[in-house]
Amino acid sequence: MNPIQQFDTINLDLLKKYGKPGPRYTSYPTAPNFSPDFTDEDYREEILERNRQDPPPPISLYFHIPFCDTLCYFCGCNMMVTRDREKIAEYVRHLKQEMDMISRLIDDGRPVEQLHWGGGTPTHLNPDEIADLAQATRERFRFADDLEAGVEIDPRGMTREHLEALYDGGFNRISMGIQDFNEKVQEAVNRIQPEDMTREVIEWARDVGFTSLNIDLIYGLPFQSVETFDHTLDRIIDINPDRIAVFNYAHVPWMKKHQALIHEEDLPSPEEKLRIMKHTITRLNRAGYLYIGMDHFARPDNELARAQANGTLYRNFQGYSTKAGLELFGLGITSISQFPGMYAQNVKNLKDYYQRLSEGRLCTQVGIRLTDDDILRRDVIMQLMCNYSVNKRDVEREYDIVFDEYFSDALTNLEELRNDGCVEITADAVKVVGPGILVIRNVAMAFDAYLVDTQEHPLFSKTV
Ligand SMILES: C[S@@+](CC[C@H](N)C(=O)[O-])C[C@H]1O[C@@H](n2cnc3c(N)ncnc32)[C@H](O)[C@@H]1O
Ligand code: SF4
């Protein structure tokens, strides 16, 4: 069993001590290490090279839809607010153009096993645009029969027709942003989302046929306390989603300027935030949810929990996933593609995106080819993030190294965490134990060869 289920052992002072900026390790090396020296030509070569694998691996497609109707002041996503329908339609046209280019490069035999639309807000497309984009994707790629297709939805402004268009387009799972039902919190972050409206959209979704529901919440928002958040949790438990993500609010106003609209004096204290987190884990555990890791909870019969139990859980840009071995192709601005030895990220604004496509070029702006050391460290970090332990002998066999020698610096970096009862280091394994599960980012950081001191202008949000 994942040791975090022993939630009574959570020591708040200890968590506070480890609350420093750190990556979320949806990739390793992390995005700030991607370089403009990696070009669209490099990306093209990598795609062609991957077709030559025998058999060529199945694929996962990610579409980034950056538009939102209104600005949530806390938002840390890559998004832009617009109500200009032509601007949105123009983007959809260009996504189809990018799909044309990418699909022509990918071997026809490679099935799409996973599809994800993220944002921004994919449901800010209207139902016709949703149907059109989904149909265009089907025409250009071969979908596997057991395609896992998820979409991020925002119930505000949604109709049943949006959901029908998504379902008819092949989507079977939804991820809904709720954040917090408390009205005072909603006002402070400029996201008014009445509970009735949210429940109605969930009812429609279940009625239309969606089989998997994830809900996003955030703790650490203005005016939240254990009491107020508990009330929201009551209602979430009543809604009974399959998975729940409870994100730690990443307040980085030096990177996301609009977050300055949130008054810092209204934010809960670090102690209160930790109490909310501890309480949330306790509450959701009691309601039958398992803590998977890094803010994610799932019912024990959910595929994430099952994958964790049998050691096949995997982590990529969309968070935890059960589909290891897929190659991820990102489409749209800011999206990231991932093959075993490479990451490539698209240009970040519409002007550059349209310019590239008009030149008939792929849209890569930065990327990285992984060295052998990167691949080894990524493997260790991902094992820690997903399974909370690394078997030294397995790593030695796979990479032909002596673990304790190769990672002597990392093991020294782990000393403090070990003394604090967060990791156990034996002759055969590194194991994350007790409160270590909650400071997993800090554990992973010990193995990160790229980390420099980022205290002055941190590139990352706080780990706890
Ligand atoms: C792209 S949004 C989800 C879809 C849709 N735009 C919505 O908000 O309902 C992804 C999720 O990221 C989370 N999020 C956004 N900004 C965040 C921040 N600064 N810190 C932590 N989580 C954040 C929210 O929980 C949000 O639901
Ligand atoms: S949280 Fe979602 S709806 Fe709100 S601004 Fe960010 S992406 Fe848009």
Can you characterise this structure?
The chain has 464 residues and is of the alpha/beta class. It folds into two domains: 1-29 and 372-464, Arc Repressor Mutant, subunit A, CATH 1.10.10; 30-331, Alpha-Beta Horseshoe (pyruvate-formate lyase- activating enzyme), CATH 3.80.30. Helix content is 38%, strand content 20%. It has 17 helices and 19 strands. The strands form five sheets. Strands 9-10-8-7-6-5-4-1-13 form a nine-stranded mixed sheet, sandwiched between helices. Helix 4 runs parallel beside helix 5 (160-168), helix 5 (160-168) packs parallel to helix 7 and helix 8 runs parallel beside helix 9. The longest helix has 21 residues, at 85-105. The chain is globular. The protein starts with 11 loop residues before the first helix and ends in a 19-residue tail after the last helix. The mean pLDDT is 93. The site of S-adenosylmethionine has 17 residues, from strand 4, strand 6 and strand 7.
Summarize the structure.
The chain has 464 residues and is α/β, with parallel strands linked by helices. It has 17 helices and 19 strands.
Strand content: 15-25%
Assign the CATH superfamily of the largest domain: tm_1862 like domain
Radius of gyration: 22 Å
Number of helices: 17
Q: Architecture of the largest domain, according to CATH?
A: Alpha-Beta Horseshoe
Separation of the first and last Cα atoms = 23 Å
The strand count comes to 19
The general outline is globular
Associated small molecules: S-adenosylmethionine, iron/sulfur cluster
Major beta sheet, specifics?
A: 9 strands, mixed
Helix coverage percent? 25-40%
User: And the CATH topology of the largest domain?
Assistant: pyruvate-formate lyase- activating enzyme
Count of the domains: 2
Oligomer state equals: single chain
CATH class of the largest domain: Alpha Beta
Q: Which regions have little confidence, pLDDT < 50, spanning 5+ residues?
A: none
Order of adjacent strands in the largest pleated sheet: 9-10-8-7-6-5-4-1-13
Structural class: alpha/beta
